[in-house]
Design goal:
- By secondary structure, the chain is of the alpha+beta class.
- The chain has a single domain, classed as 60s Ribosomal Protein L30, Chain: A.
- 16% of the residues lie in helices and 31% in strands.
- It is built from 2 helices and 9 strands, in the order βββββαβαβββ.
- The strands form 2 sheets. Strands 2-5-4-6-7 form a 5-stranded mixed beta sheet, with helices on one face.
- Strand 6, helix 2 and strand 7 form a beta-alpha-beta unit.
- The longest helix has 15 residues.
- The protein starts with 9 loop residues before the first strand and ends in a 22-residue tail after the last strand.
Length: 180
């Protein structure tokens, strides 16, 4: 389903490690994803929806559950989103999900995007939340817009035709360096 935009629409950017839930008909959640995953949840009965944006599926074993930065990890991000939806009136049995992102943008590197997508799909399956659509994988970034009240989504690939990064030569140090 395509987004329906109105002059009153307000955009809220959901950044890495964040989530948002709303029943505001004039609100659109937006984000840009590479290997990260965004889960969009929607309860059509409660007319309530939410989006999260997580960086990695799970924290390293050495990290404590409530350490700073825990919200960047899938397990924490998914739990926060589902629980806030329920607190605001959604029912787990009515929730519907869409997943986006999970690109593997750097060849030769660990497939972090694939791992993130696999985690999110497994989480939804274990929580018995219906996954209606998944647009994950590939090698391109995505721009995502989600209307939480209607559950409508627009996902577009972000082209690779961005300007090349210019290498900058840093001159050798001349003189003393003062630290303060």
């Amino acid at each position: 389903m395509d987004l329906i935009t109105t002059p009153k629409m307000v955009r809220h950017n959901v950044l890495q490690g964040e989530y948002a839930v709303s029943g505001d008909p004039d609100l659109v959640f937006s984000t840009i994803l590479g290997s990260c995953i965004a889960c969009c949840l929607f309860d059509p009965v409660a007319r309530l929806g939410g989006m999260n944006h997580f960086l990695l599926a799970s924290p390293p074993h050495s990290m404590q559950v409530l350490d700073d930065g825990a919200e960047r990890f899938g397990l924490y991000a998914m739990e926060l989103l589902v629980n806030d939806m329920i607190k605001k009136g959604a029912s787990r049995t009515n929730m519907r999900a869409h997943l986006y992102g999970g690109s593997n943008m750097l060849s030769g590197m660990r497939a972090i995007g694939t791992e993130n997508a696999r985690f999110a799909k497994e989480f939804l399956r274990n929580d018995r939340i219906a996954l209606l659509k998944a647009d994950t994988g590939g090698e391109q970034a995505r721009r995502l817009d989600f209307q939480p009240v209607t559950g409508r989504v627009r996902c577009r690939n972000v082209g690779r035709d961005l300007p090349p990064v210019q290498a900058t030569r840093i001159p050798a140090a001349l003189g003393d360096v003062e630290l303060f």
